[in-house]
Amino acid sequence: MELEQQFKDFIYQETMEDGQLKNYDSMDKLEQDLKGIMVWPLADHYLDTFFYEENGNVYLESRDGPISLMTDQEYSLEKMNENHYKLTQSGNNELRGDYTLTIHYKYEAGKWVFGDRMDNVESDNGGQLPDTATSLPLMLVVGGAFIVLGALFMIRRKHVSV
After folding, report:
1. Cβ–Cβ < 8 Å for 19, 60
2. Where is the Gram-positive cocci surface proteins LPxTG domain positioned along the sequence (predicted)?
């Protein structure tokens, strides 16, 4: 659970009023530290999603954070192999509704890191798309065919009358 706390500390950074990070003055340093607890593609995802650099300063995006692991609630931990575990936790919160958090822990370079961290939110919004199908594409094809036939007819007529 130490790894989860390190993740929270990165995502929920102490900031100034304008969102500027207090503990980091470059994206390079933040990237280096974040890649110390997760695989590089995942670190790049979190950097691109939650942080940005402007005028030499690093800022936290003003947005909802990722779903957190609730260590006081039920979760399952499945051993995939000696160097890979998968944690799954289902829950509900007011903002997102029902969700499933899936975290893959991997042992790489002599330490445990996040291999993947996904929060899948179930949604009742949307449903079926409205029936907006039209016959316009068919009409375009038929119209194009008539144009081609007309052009062929005109060319053939010129050849016959000559």
Report:
1. yes
2. 123-159
